[in-house]
Amino acid sequence: MMEYEKEQVVRYGKKLIDRRLTTGSGGNISVYNREQNLVAISPSGLDYYETTPEDIVILDIDGNLVEGKNRPSSEAGMHLAFYKNRADVSGIVHTHSKFATAIACMGWELPAVHYLIGMAGHRVKCTGYATYGSDELAKKALETIGDSNAVLLANHGLIALGEDVDRAFSTAEHLEFVSEVYYLTKTLGTPNILSDENMDEVMKKFGTFRYR
């Protein structure tokens, strides 16, 4: 069941480690097959390089276990909330990447210090704090993200959405770069932030433009 989606979760889990977007078994990945109404999600607590397609958990959109011997990621509820409420999303990547997490630990939003933020939106907002894996965190993330493709989770990390997992991963990776640039520019002085009008043009080119 869902062999292609399982293989994608395994593949992108390894890329999380390779691209230094998390450590250990931190973060999580899911892929939603809208035709089957099923979600393939990474298991809880397994090393990404030891995870096989047989370890991936299959849930229905209400969170019921359909297939798998492992516990699903502790953030399964947050993934499902996005899939239920965002018809444009079929892949989700949650990272504990260093610079994005640092911004989240400050409780700051990530502004348009570099045009590549346009993969997510005009800015990336930050939720209020809630315990990992909780319904409260899922609710805060959904309320905060709006129609953006990413949101910072206070004192926790980043979650990125995409029309597929490749797009979600690319967004997460580019936002880590933007977060590092923001960190560096803050150490130099006051960053020059692009205007909404500047970002409108960027997002039209990216194909991510949405009217504010």
TrEMBL record:
GO terms for biological process: pentose catabolic process. Its EC number is 4.1.2.17. Keywords: Lyase, Metal-binding. Residues 7-183 form the Class II aldolase/adducin N-terminal domain. This is L-fuculose phosphate aldolase. Pfam families: Aldolase_II. GO terms for cellular component: cytosol. It comes from Acetoanaerobium sticklandii (strain ATCC 12662 / DSM 519 / JCM 1433 / CCUG 9281 / NCIMB 10654 / HF) (Clostridium sticklandii). It comes from the Bacteria. GO terms for molecular function: L-fuculose-phosphate aldolase activity; metal ion binding. Coiled coil: none annotated.
